[in-house]
Structures are given as C-alpha cells and as structure tokens.
Amino acid sequence: MIILGRKEVKNYLYLCEKIENEYFQKRIKNSFEYYIKNANFYKYVGMTLSILGIVLPALATILTACDADKGWIACTTSVATAASGIFAYLKCSDKQETCRKAAENMKAELVAYAAEQGDYKGGSTGNVDKDAILFERIENIIQNGYDRIVELDKKNERFGN
User: Fold this and answer.
1) pTM of this structure
2) Residues near 31 by beta carbon (within 8 Å), at least 6 away in sequence
3) What does the DSSP 8-state code read for residue 3?
4) How confident is the model over 5-19, as pLDDT tens digits?
5) What distances in angstroms separate CA 79 from CA 2, 55, 65, 91, 129, one per listed residue?
6) Are 13 and 29 a contacting pair, CB within 8 Å?
7) What do you get for the CA distance between the two ends of the chain, in Å?
8) What are the tens digits of pLDDT across the range 126-149?
9) Percent over 70 (pLDDT), the chain
10) CB contact set of 43 (below 8 Å; sequence gap of 6+)
11) Residue 130: in which H helix or E strand, if any?
C-alpha cells in the first residue's frame, strides 16, 4: 500500500522534537501526519475520479461513433456517472483543502515555536509559556479542521447525497 505524504511528514516531524511534553508531542505528530496523509489522499482520489469523469464520457462518445457494442457504451457511461457521483459525495476538493490548510497552519506554528518567534519569543528564558501557547493553537487548528470535515459530511446527509 502506498502511504501518501510520507516524505512530507518525514521532512517536518523534526519540528516536534523540540516539544518536551511527550504526550503533547505524540498528539501533534499524530494529528500532523493525519492531516498531511488525508490531504494527499483526497488530492489523488479527487484527481483520479475527475480524470475518469472526463475521459470516460469522451470514450463513450468515441465508442458510439465507432458503432461499438452497446454494452461497452453503457458500461463506460455508468462508470463515468459513478465516478462523478463519488467525487461529489466525497467532497474531495473541499476535504483536501481543509486538511492541507490544517497541516500548513500546524507547520507554521511549529516553526514559530522552534524558532521562538512571534508569541513564542522568550520561551527559553521562561518569560513565556510557549508550550501552553502551542497547545492551545494546535488544538484550535485540529478542532477547526475536524469541525469543517464534519460540516462537509453533514451536507451529504442533509441532501441525501
């Protein structure tokens, strides 16, 4: 099985090493991996379904013009319809954008934390509780991402999609 986003996760997980609280470090690592992998998953699934939704109707048109067996034409158009329906149901673009935004926001917070920039400035001298700031911000990012995905899924339930 291909694990999407593995290289990106590996390239940025070093930022978590600066976090002293091991439970919080694990929470951030797991959430960070989740958002990166899901962003890539929805990107590739969405791209595949979109391509099928474009190529298969064109193929059906070609098959029709060539007087191909009606079974092949029906099968091709059915798969194209299913691919388009699944793409719309999964809301791949919206979920990919949500996961990507959460991952990028987490990266930005982790870089600022590690470099002691912005609100994290003064953390090494004890003037600022940078762990508390990071915890609050990361949890906010996680909650916003979760809320957005739940909202997208509820739209499917509401409209019977």
Assistant:
1) 0.81
2) 106, 138, 142
3) -
4) 778 888 888 888 888
5) 24, 11, 19, 18, 55
6) yes
7) 29
8) 777 888 899 999 999 999 999 999
9) 92
10) 4, 92, 96, 100
11) helix 130-159
